[in-house]
Amino acid sequence: MSSAHYQALESQTSDEDNEDIERRQHPNHPRSTTVKTTAPHPMVRKGAVARRRCLLPLAGGALFFIAFCYFTLSGETRITLGLGGGSEDSEEGSHRGLDSIHFRPLNESLHICSESYEDRRQFMQDKPQSDYGLLPIIYFVTPTYPRREQIPELTRLAHTLLHVPRLHWLVADDQEKCNDFLDTLLNRFGIPFTHMVSPMPIKFRNEKPAPRGVANRRAALQWLRQHNLTNGVLYFGDDDNTYDLRLFSEIRKTQRVSMFPVGLIADYGVSGPVVRRGKVVGFLDSWVAGRRWPVDMAGFAVNLEYMAQYPYVNMPYKPGYEEDLFLRSIDLQMNLIEPRGNNCTEILVWHTQTKSKKMGMVRLESKYLDERSNLGALLLNLKLMGVASTTENEGRNALISKNGKEKAHSYFLS
Questions:
Q1: Long-range contacts, stretch 243-246, CB < 8 angstroms, 24+ apart
Q2: Cα(90)–Cα(93) distance, rounded to whole angstroms?
Q3: Phi, psi angle pair for 128, to nearest 5°
Q4: Is the pLDDT of residue 84 over 70?
Q5: List of residues 6+ apart from 1 with CB closer than 8 A
Q6: Among candidate residues 255, 205, 196, 244, the one with its CA nearest the CA of residue 224
C-alpha cells in the first residue's frame, strides 16, 4: 500500500470544447446564461480614425485566414488551434446556456490513499490467474461517498469483481480525507485497486440536484491520463448496481465504444440502444431532455486507445447530462457504437438502488464498551463503517432481551 499526491494538471480547453458542451443544455434549463458585452468608451483621441483605417486591411486578412482554416482544416486540427468546429449530427439542434462553471478541464488535485497492482487471487471462474494474462484490463471506476450503506455495498460489489480476471478497481471517495477502514477493506480482497479521494467542489454541494459522482469520475479520468494508459477498457460501475458476470466478457471486446441496455431505469424500466440489422439506430429512454446520447452511466464502455485520441475528454458538472457530455467529448458517432448483450436484447447490468437511511444510534453508557462483552468492539467497527454510533444521552436506551423479555443493558453488562 502506498500514498501519493498528484498535482493538478494544466488547464486544457478549446473554443470547440466550450461551444460543443454548451450546445447540449436542455432549452428550459434554469442555468442558462447570457453573455454581456460592454460598449466602447465614448472618448476617442484624435488620430484614432486614421489608425483604424490602417488596421482594417490587417483585420480583414486575419478574418480571412481564420475562415480559411475553419472550412479547410480537419476537426482535430481546428481543436488543436483553438478554432472550434467539432463534428455535429446534422439533425441536432443548437442548445446554448450551459454556463462555464459546469465545464472545467480535468485539473483537480488528486490524492491517492493507497493502491496495489498485485493480483492475489489464485482462481477466477475456475481457471488459474495465469490463463488470463493476455486479456485487456478493465478499469472499473466506482464513485462512492460516506453513508450508512457504503461499506456493505462496496463489499457486495467486491464479491462480484472477485470473479473477474484482469481488472483494476478505481474507487474514488467523495470526501476530504482517506478512510483507513476502506483502505484495509480494499486491500483484503486481493483485487488490484487504487483508492483515491476527490471531494465534490463546495460550490456544487448546495445545488439540487447536486452533480454527485462527477468529481469522483473526473479523478479517475485524470488518473488514467496521468498514467498514459491506452491499453484496456474503461467502465463506470456504481457501487449499488447489480452486474451479470457475462457483462465483463462483453465489454472486454470493446474496440471504440460499446453499449448495452440497463434494467430498472425510470419509467420504462430500461434504458438502452435500439438496434436494427446489427447497428444502433436510436435509444429507448424515458427521459431524453435533448440529450444526443440518452444512456445510463452503466450502459457503455470505452476503449482507452480510442479515448486517448481526444485530449479534451471530460465529464462536466451537469446533473443528468454527465453521460451525454462525456460521450460527446470523445466525439462519439452513431456508426461507431458496438451493440453488446446479444444485440442489446439481454440485461447484463441492473440499476438497483439501496434506500439510504440515517446512521443508527445506540444509547449506551461508554463504561460498558469495554471487554466485558462483544459490544465494545462490535459498535466500534460499525462506527468506523459509518453504520451506527453510540451515544449516552440521545435516542432510545439500548435494551437487551432474553427469553423474549427486554431488560436494560446494565442488567446484563454490570
A1: 243/157, 243/160, 243/348, 243/349, 243/350, 244/347, 244/348, 244/349, 245/125, 245/160, 245/163, 245/164, 246/346, 246/348
A2: 8
A3: -65, 155
A4: no
A5: 114, 115, 116, 183, 187
A6: 196
Tell the residue number behind the cell numbers 487471487, with chain if given.
Answer: 121
Task: Please report, for residues 42, 121, 185, 280, 332, the alpha-carbon distance to residue 296 in angstroms, rounded to integers and kept in the order given.
Answer: 54, 31, 28, 16, 15
Q: Tens digits of per-residue pLDDT, 396-410?
A: 788 877 777 888 888
Q: Are 387 and 151 in contact (CB under 8 A)?
A: yes
Task: Using alpha carbons only, give the angle 118, 119, 123 rounded to the nearest 5 degrees.
Answer: 160
361-373: pLDDT as tens digits: 888 888 888 888 8
* Pick from 84, 79, 76, 94: nearest CA to 23: 94
Contacts (Cβ under 8 Å, ≥6 apart) of 184: none
Output DSSP code: residue 397: B
Residue 305's CB is within 10 A of a number of other CB atoms, namely: 15
DSSP 317-352: S-TT-HHHHHHHHTT--GGGEEE-HHHHTS--EE--
- Domain positions in the chain are 100-350, 360-413
CB of 195 closer than 8 Å to CB of 171: yes
**Distance in angstroms (rounded) separating the CA atoms of residues 41 and 362:** 69
Could you list the active site residues? 323
State the sign of the Cα–Cα–Cα–Cα dihedral 64, 68, 71, 76. Answer: negative
CATH number listed for the domain at residues 100-350: 3.90.550.10
| Beta sheet of 233-236, edge-to-edge order | 4-6, 110-116, 193-197, 167-173, 138-144, 233-236, 300-303, 257-259, 337-339
Predicted local distance difference test score (pLDDT) of residue 87: 42
pTM for this predicted structure: 0.71
Q: Is the dihedral of CA 223, 298, 326, 250 positive or negative?
A: positive
Amino acid symbol at 268 = Y
Q: Which of 101, 171, 166 is nearest to 136 (CA)?
A: 166
CA distance 211 to 206: 10
Q: Which three cell numbers stand for residue 39?
A: 460598449
Radius of gyration of the chain (CA): 26
Which of 303, 308, 262, 304 lies closest to 285 in space, CA to CA?
Answer: 262
The answer to whether 171 touches 142, Cβ cutoff 8 Å, is: yes
Helix/strand/coil for 208: coil
